[in-house]
Design brief:
8 helices; 2 domains; disordered N terminus
Amino acid sequence: MFTKRLKKYGKAKILILVMIFLSVALVFGTTANAAIGQNSEGLKSEQTINGPGFFAGNLVQVDGTVEGTTFAAGQEIRINGIINGDLFVAGQTIYVNGKINGNIYAAGQNLSIGTQSSGDVFLAGQNVDINKEAVIGRDLFAAGARVSLAGTVQRLFSGGGSDILINGSVGRDANLDAENIKLLDGAVIKGNLSYKSANQAVIDSGSTVSGQTNWQYVTTQHTSKRNTYLDDLGSALLSIASAILIWFLVRIWRPDLWTNNARFIAEQPLKTLGTGILTLLVTPLLIILMMVTVIGIPIGIILGLIYVVTIYLSKIIVAVFIGSWLTKRFNWTEQLKGFWPILLGLVILVILMKVPILGFLVWLLAVFAGLGSFILSSVKSSTVAE
């Protein structure tokens, strides 16, 4: 029962993790990008760069080659080149038509995928279209209000949303969860078709399902208190797991970032909280002012991404501080490169945030402390660099 409830959050987590990880990459990658002379808004067809590649702007177009993991964010994004590594992309409208020699993680309002990909593809958006030219080398995971598959998926297709339309090819099983499912003439599923829906799938006579077709009828049910507790527990565990993932990935990328930020909370608590309060209040006003002008829109988008992701990272920074403080207070030996202290800090924070009224105050203090430490650390780093 509990495992099933955890799975319920899976498709939403695709979107959340893509957005968070991409934003983290953009926050810490923009400075490095400028240093090596990359164009933050695109890459011409004759250009080749050694990754990781970071691209952000109102319109991002990558026609060249990136040798390494690539991150892109903006209002409209077009990936037409070759990415020899994983691709992380988030924006309002996204077109991926190039060759991706790795996995694809994409989130946005409208996604159009016509790529030749060698890895897995994770997609989340309002409208998700996998065009007939697309060839996905491994598995496809797609979640959206409307998901349309016209291309080829070499292995498994897992989809969720309101409407799912298939007139392409799936090399193995298709596992779907949607209100309306339709297989058009020419659709081919070489394995089993398993789906959960309140409505029976519409399967045209010209489509082919080589394996079995399994329909699990589902209806909307009232949630009991017991189910609510399980939902809360599953949500809390997934929140901790996603925070641990971000902590680990950033630690590999920037080993000292977490400790450098958490140090300000311990050494200058009042200054850190004051800076955080000021940042939380002033930043939205700056974003609004920038978005008024056409020139300032890309800057406003990037600043908004940084603002949102820093608020999310605040929880991790404060958890690192709690774990570090407890380690010193009780003279614990740090094991697994800080894993246990950060895990303990996150568990304490999540528990406190679940307490009515107190939870909001704890969250607010964590945001103040995290934002303040991030700003103070950034200012100190800039001063040292100069």
